[in-house]
Amino acid sequence: MIISWIYWVIVVLVILLVVRCLYEEKSLREQLVAAMVLIPLVLRALFIK
């Protein structure tokens, strides 16, 4: 149980870093890459595999 909470916290922290990178990036290509990375991370945070 505690391991799943730790896993969730790590995933949420990574999501926050990717979102920050998404908004700070000027290149449209890099923004698209960050958005593609963000999709599976959000699904993992919602425990959807």
Please render the helix and strand layout as text.
Blueprint: H1 2-24, H2 28-45
Helix pairs in contact: 1-2
* Count of alpha and pi helical runs: 2
**Percentage of residues assigned to helices:** over 70%
Structural category:
mainly alpha
- The number of E-state strands comes to 0
SSE topology string: HH
How many domains? The number is 1
Please describe the biggest sheet, giving its number of strands, its sense, and whether it closes into a barrel: none
Uncertain stretches of 5 or more adjacent residues: none
Report mean pLDDT, rounded to a whole number: 93
Shape: elongated
Provide a compact summary of the structure.
With 49 residues, the protein is mainly alpha-helical. The chain has one domain.
Structure description:
By secondary structure, the chain is an all-alpha fold. It has one domain. Helices cover 84% and strands 0% of the residues. The relative contact order is 0.16.
Can you tag this structure with a few keywords?
mainly alpha, 49 residues
